[in-house]
Write a structure and sequence with these properties.
The chain has 22 helices and 26 strands. The chain is of the alpha/beta class. The strands form five sheets. Strands 18, 19, 20, 21, 22, 23, 24, 25 and 26 form a nine-stranded antiparallel β-sheet that branches.
Length: 831
Amino acid sequence: MTVRSRRLLISALVASTGIASTGLPGAPAFAQSDPAASAQSAIAHPAQWPAAASPAAITDVKTEAFITQLMAKMSVEEKVGQTIQGDIASMTPADLEKYPLGSILAGGNSAPGGDDRAPPKAWIDLVDAYRKQALAARPGHTPIPIMFGIDAVHGHNNIVGATIFPHNVGLGAMRDPALIRRIGQATAEEVAAVGGDWTFGPTVAVPRDDRWGRSYEGYAEDPEVVKSYSGPMTLGLQGELKPGASLGVGHIAGSAKHFLADGGTEDGKDQGDARISEAELVAIHAQGYPPSIDAGILTVMVSFSSWNGQKMTGNKTLLTDVLKGRMGFQGFVVSDWNAHGQVAGCTNASCPQAMNAGLDMYMAPDSWKPLYNNTLAQVKAGEIPMARLDDAVRRILRVKVKAGLFERVAPSVQGQLERLGAEEHRAIAREAVAKSLVLLKNDGVLPVKPGARVLVAGAADDIGKASGGWTLTWQGTGNKNSDFPHGQSIWGGIEQAVKAAGGQAELAPGGQFKTKPDVAIVVFGEDPYAEFQGDVANLGYQLGDKTDLALLKKLKAQGIPVVSVFLSGRPLWVNPEINASDAFVAAWLPGSEGGGVADVLVAGKDGKSKRDFQGKLGFSWPKRADQGPLNRGQPGYDPQFAYGYGLSYAKPATVGSLPEDPGQAAAAGSVDRYFVEGRLPAPWRMDFLGAGSVKSIDAGAQENARQAAWTGQGMLAIHGPPVDLSRQTTGDMAVMVRYRIDAAPTAPVTMSIGCSDDASCGGAVDVSGLLKDAKPGEWSSTKIKLSCFQTAGAKMDHVTAPFVVSTSGPFSLSLTEVRLASNEGDAICPK
């Protein structure tokens, strides 16, 4: 089939179904702030900002003298190298011989050998290989240790066996700064045990629109909680800085992020624009930084986002005048993942504007080589002043000195792998889980009485779901309980507690039972996601297909009291689910210590639980699914459960029947799930056009698959209204297909992504070779990178057909799943 034929077929298909070229249905528009804010300036006035100061121990005389002597030996090439950070997936230790980079990182899906479940020793060996090369003696080389950064955002969440703490959305509900410091210290020790010396945390964002996919990375909607936590978390990670000394054993460098207003973007869009006044920027989004700076935070990460149209990474008044000036920050400023490429006039390979604005280190995961060459040329040409480069290098070396990188012979916990998932760390996490639970409703069914027969249903035995995104992989998907060898699922904790109290516990995800239970505990909620993949159009939970509500109602109809344990990275509209429950607990994303849930829900033999509910909402709970920004103190504030709400056994209250009108929000269309379990989530349709047909078939379950049969030229297409997949493309997402060859193709087969209203749009890749390797009659899975289709000509910001298979001869193909998935080192571009 020719490209022209394919375009015409897609155009005809779209025309025949009457699809309009508008956005997804059911996505209401909300005002983030005063509309006039969009016309406001992006120039900061330092006098209006809070003052702070890095401790004098960062710039003590001994440290500065050492740096001065070191810089006198460095070439301009070495100085430029210090300002660039590359990702381990895009470079090797050998690259450091020619390119003297100052830092490496392991991004969300980067790991030794591309194995997200690589053993801890492999991580140590990888980091040591880079360190050895950076310090290797060679002519004209100044040995400077390399710095290794990683996102250990809820424990060392990149390593199998590490303690996984609750995400920040849960920790904020605790209102316990002392416990936050203990969590930071435990996290630092587990990172250091595997060779790490720098984590990209604490996150001090203040999420103001819960539709934002990173809401769970924030402690609360109100800066009071963030402000109370940022200093203690900094001290937990780094310890207290001392003049002339490096960080203590088991401590690592931290990074306050993301500077600034990443939680204040219009409509909660990830990497979006905060259209707000400077006064709001200061009062809401800046408050977490002074306590962290005062506590000695060594690095600050700049946000992808913008303020009134200007990217933060290029805003000199914020980075230089406010952060380094008014706030007295003496560490170094690092960008987010290729964020410099989004600055006006920049690309991933060239951005002098960012360094001149005050950026000290570029996070250039896959663009490090051309960026190094261009930055070096820009310094030599004077486009980047030598004084600015020297300041950046001094700041970076200052942090390396304080982090102890020049003293690797000093005592360290590296290699003490017994510290991963150590008993005392798991005890801290269990305490945090218990303290983070928020009781929204309890009609006397909790705590579960001793001796009770308890049915546990839903996702109770899924540690991966309870841990959420940023867990072993970027999106947190594909995890099994065996990936948490020291962990305990919520089911495991409940079973243990019920039996200890003389009762019986039975696990049945679907809610079936032989003997009627005294009570049912149902665990359900959001599946894992990270960053933009978590952005949603509204706050409705399962508006279109309320399978979890059906389970609750089924149990209630049988006369069984129901306790709901809701897993989520944000408050969601669940009024029908609350009405169908006798007790409802917001458990957030508790992590690997499910026993903490049982400590509060299940009574011991004395009739009392180990702990009472302590959690208070750090985020206002919506009354309708169409509520947008919902924050304490805003005009018209009308939540279902207000900020600070939380019941307890000591202070109970009655919750009546809640309204079940979701408002104007319709079931949100899916931009990443196209065909799952025999269904096509809205707004997608599947059609066959040309010589052939498609029908439903059984593949292990009733009508859970579709079979397409070609008799000549034709195409199978999943299509709908235009959606923007550009962010997913830059995020290295892939189309995942589970398929079976029923009759081998007789002509070349292409897979494409279509954008039918643009004649210049291509996007086809030849998958004939891929299909040739598949065994007929056997199910296979593959991931094809979105970037492959973009390279082939697809317009990723205007996709109307995310999955099209075309051929011109007899062929038969069955499908059970088509969706987007993160590239975990297993995605390809077919050859």
